Amino acid sequence: EWTKYGDSAKITHNIFAYLNRHWIQREQDEGSNVCDVSTLMYQLWRDQFFMSIRNTLLDSVFSLMTRIRNGQVADINLVKSVADSFVSLGNDDSGIASKRMEVYEKYFLEPFIKSSVEYYREEADRLLQEGSIIDYIVRVSSRLQEEDDRVELYLHESSLKDFKDALNKVLVTRQKDKFYSEFEPLLDARDSLNLKRLYSLVARTGKGSALDPLRDIFSAYVKKAGLDAIKQVSGSEETGGAIAKEARLFVTAVLGVHDLFAGLLHDAFEEDTGFSKSLDNACKDFINTNAMCPEGEARAPQMLAHYCDTLLKKGSGNVRKAGAEGASDEDSLEAQLSQAVCVFRYIKAVDVFQKFYSQHLSRRLVYEQSVSSYGEEMMISKLKEISGVDFTSKLTRMFTDMTLSKEMSEEFKEKCRDGDFAIPFDFDMKVLHTVSWPLKAPDTKLLLPSELSSVCSRFTNYYQNKHNGRKLNWMWQHSKAEIKMFFPKATGPAAKAGYIFHVSTFQLAILMLFNDESGPGTGYDSPNGPTLTLEQISQATGLDNDMIKPELEIFCKARVLVSSNNKISGDSKFTLNANFKSKHLRINLAVSKKVEQKREATDTMRAVDVDRMYAIQAAIVRIMKTRKQLSHRQLVEDTISMIKLFQASIGDIKKGIDTLIDKEYLERSESNRDVYNYLA
């Protein structure tokens, strides 16, 4: 009947079109309380018919919706027709459509929402009595999805939000506490499907404050999981105290936790920015302070640098499988480096990582141990994306030095050939700029064997002639050599080909002393071979006993030398072992020592502290140069904000301020001692 009446209203309105356009419009412009024919007919329907049957009509609508919600067959279009009729009856008595939705909202929407809320309140209570909170989450998720799909078909678009908010309140908001308490058990079960349902339900009530309790629980849970994972591998017998193995276990544990919860972030929480931030904060907390990384020691960046070194060094193998099965070596390496960079994003003391990474990179380049130049460049590129060009500028210049050194080495060899000087052995040098490389000049001066000394002297003259005014320091502690040795009692291939020892330059100088003492030929002038004392070796090489003893210990352990005492002391005597035998023809004696590694780590951290003080002072000067005058509190806050590589402590900032006052960059204000003035 409503459809027929609406069609009749349109026809009648068209019949009186001239009246509507002219007389009625003129009367409305003059302020008369008249309306067009169509509006008048709808008012008659409302006043003479609708107001008397509206309650009965609504009861029919509610009954129809109940049947639909209970899964029975019913025509949803009937509900839409009723809702549309309420919208059409919305003009006021003046005929002006200023309150068009008033009838719809007052007489249809409010009762409809109230009826729906009562229906779902009863269902919610029943579900909680009959089943678990998980069953409730599953059922309510399904119910709300059904209503979302259905409500678009019959309600006016202006009322969709109010209707959904009312259902969210009765089905979700009332049970929030139960949802929050169930969140952690779902994390324990790694139930991503129900976690997604729970997240979606709570998110319907507002993605801000409503989700904050879940984000806090998630952050605390991830932090605890990370701490537990690292605690399980800390002190593992598998490491044997080796930093490289500790680093592998540490990074593997971190990545395991991160990958797990990053997967949940994607599968269950729709990459929600709040949950992503919670994951990041939790990772920062447990990565930087845990059972393997005590607070204040900055061990996390050190171990990550060692891990990267293991990935990029020849012969280390893959420490953690990554990438798709069957992927190329380059693809696998890129995947592993991406995982390492993922951990790097959470490192707080990135300046410590930078220092240790540059040290490892310098060794890989100097000793030619890089697994590939592609991998090295790719890692630097990834670091540059995160930390900027300044962070990687020195690393990039190292590669430039290597290229220039290679060209210089070829040029030097060419000049030697042209000058009739025959280099008696394969000679390869690398000229490195002090500013870019984290290498320190040796504390002691090495007295080289004559064969090596002549070549080095000639290269020094060549370099100084080529670059007038530059100083060349030989880094003997980082130099390596290969020496072939023959032992008279060797058998098999070793008797003819000899043994090739890979040694440091210090070790080379020591072994050559025994060769000089014995004369030409096999290296022996008696069955027992030449004998040298510790003092003789020290005088001949220029090295002190503290530097000689570790090298002699390696020789004795490898049975290349024989010591007169079990423990090396000042009166020990050393003889070449005439009975030396080995299954391997190539033997590496240039092994790094734990004492050296610890000393280098200590020296590196000391250098980090010095660099930090310079960075703090530079930041203070930049701030004060701009601001001219600042209070102590504001200067400290601005300095902390400016420095990105590390978290500057208030104590260090105070020291920096005092140093700059002593250097007359700053002064205290005479009127207020808590205020600093910049001195130009």
Mean pLDDT: 84
Largest sheet: 3 strands, mixed
E-strand count? 9
**Rg from C-alpha positions?**
41 Å
| Strand proportion | 5-15%
Strand order of the largest sheet: 1-2-6
Question: Could you give a quick summary of the protein structure above?
Answer:
This protein has 680 residues and is mainly alpha-helical. It has helices spanning 2-15, 17-29, 37-69, 76-88, 102-130, 133-154, 160-171, 176-189, 192-203, 212-233, 243-267, 273-288, 299-312, 329-344, 350-366, 373-387, 389-418, 450-466, 493-497, 505-518, 534-541, 545-557, 594-627, 632-642, 650-662, and strands at residues 480-485, 499-504, 531-533, 561-563, 573-576, 586-588, 629-631, 666-668, 675-678. 64% of the residues lie in helices and 5% in strands.
Structural features:
mainly alpha
Explain what this protein looks like in three dimensions.
It is a single chain. This protein is mostly helical and 680 residues long. The protein is built from 25 helices and nine strands. Strands 1-2-6 form a three-stranded mixed β-sheet. The protein has a three-stranded antiparallel β-sheet with strand order 3-5-4. The protein has a three-stranded antiparallel β-sheet with strand order 7-9-8. A hairpin with a 6-residue loop joins strand 8 and strand 9. Helix 6 runs antiparallel to helix 7. About 4% of the residues have low confidence.
